[in-house]
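User: Could you write out the 3D structure of this protein bound to magnesium ion? I've included everything you need below.
Assistant: Certainly. Input first, then the structure.
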Amino acid sequence: MEVAVRVVQAACTLCQRVQSSLLLPASASASGSVHSKIDRSPVTVADWGVQAIVSWLLSDCFQDENISIVAEEDDETLSSSDGAALLESVVAAVNGCLIEAPKYGLRSPEKEFKAHDILQAIRRCSSIGGPKGRFWVLDPVDGTLGFVRGDQYAVALALIEDGEVVLGVLGCPNYPMKKEWLNYHQRYYRLMSKVSPPTSGSWHKGCVMYAHRGCGQAWMQPLVHDFGKLDWRNSREVRVSTVSDPISATFCEPVEKANTSHSFTAGLAHSVGLRKQPLRVYSMVKYAAIARGDVEIFMKFARAGYKEKIWDHAAGVVIIREAGGVITDAGGRPLDFSRGVFLEGLDRGIIACSGPLLHHRIVGAVDASWNSSTL
Ligand SMILES: [Mg+2]
C-alpha cells in the first residue's frame, strides 16, 4: 500500500505537468500532443508516461517478485515510424518525473531513460489478468477526455489477488481535499493559467485516496510534490454519506453520452424519487466522490455490446467498499475481476451507492424499467 500510494503521488506530478502544458494558450508544446486511439478516444504523453514510470517503479520496488501488470496502453503508436517525436516527449516527461522519485521515497534509475527503456517499461504491462495469482491493474490516466479539457481525471492503481481487488489507490489531481474548494479551484486555475503558467509545486489542490480490503476504512491524503513534507495531519479517513432518503441524495454519472445512457438514468432517478440534478464527472473521480460522501449514487449503463475494462473500476471498487458503500452490477452481483481484462458477465450496468437502502431501491427500479428501455 505504501509503495502504491507513493508511486501514484509521483505519477500525478507527471500528469499535472503535462496537463498544464496542454492548457497553455497557443502553447507550442500542446500542438500535436493529443492523439486518437482506434476507438477514437484521446491519448496523450501522460498516458504513456505514467504507464512507463509506474511499471518501472513497481518493478524496482519489488525486484524479487516477478510482478505482473495489466494496464491500458500499449507501445504500438510510440514504436511506429511516425511516433518518434511523440516518444521523445514521453522520454522527457518520464525522466523529468523519475529524477524526482527520491522526493517520494522511491529510487531514480541509475541512468536517464532512453527511448527503448520507455518502450520496454510500457510493454512490461502485458499481463492479461485472470482468476489466479497476483497482478497490478493500472489505468495511467482515467478520463483522458477530462484530462485534455483541464477537468477531472484520475491515476488508478489496484492490486488483484486470486480474482479479488485487495488494494486500490486513486490519484485525483484536480479533486481537492474538500468539496467546497472544487469550484473555487477550477475557476482560479483557469484564470491563473492564462496569466502565468503554473509551476510545478504550486498546486496542492488534489487528493489521493486509498484502501485495503478488509480494513473497513478508506483514507485520503493531499497530493504533494515532496512526500517527506507531507503533513499527515492533513490525511484523514473518508466515509460514505449517511443520506438514505432519495430526495436528499445526489447521483453522478459519466459526462459523455457515449459512455452511458443519460435518458435511462434520468428515468430511473425520477422513478426512485431523486430530485437533484445529476453531477456529471469525468473518470473514476466519481468513485472518490461516493467514498468521501460528496454524492450518494453512481450509475452507468453503457450501450449494448460495450465491455467494461477492469482498470476503469478496480481501484474505485475497493475504496467505495471499505468506505462503507455498496457497488454491484444492475443484477446486484459483485463485479467480477477474475476473468481477464474485461468485467465479463456484467449484468446491464454498474450501480454504486453510499448504502444498501439506496442501492436496493435503484436495483429494483432498473428491473422495473429495463424492458421498456431501448438499451
Ligand atoms: Mg486511461
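The radius of gyration is 20 Å.
User: Perfect, thank you.
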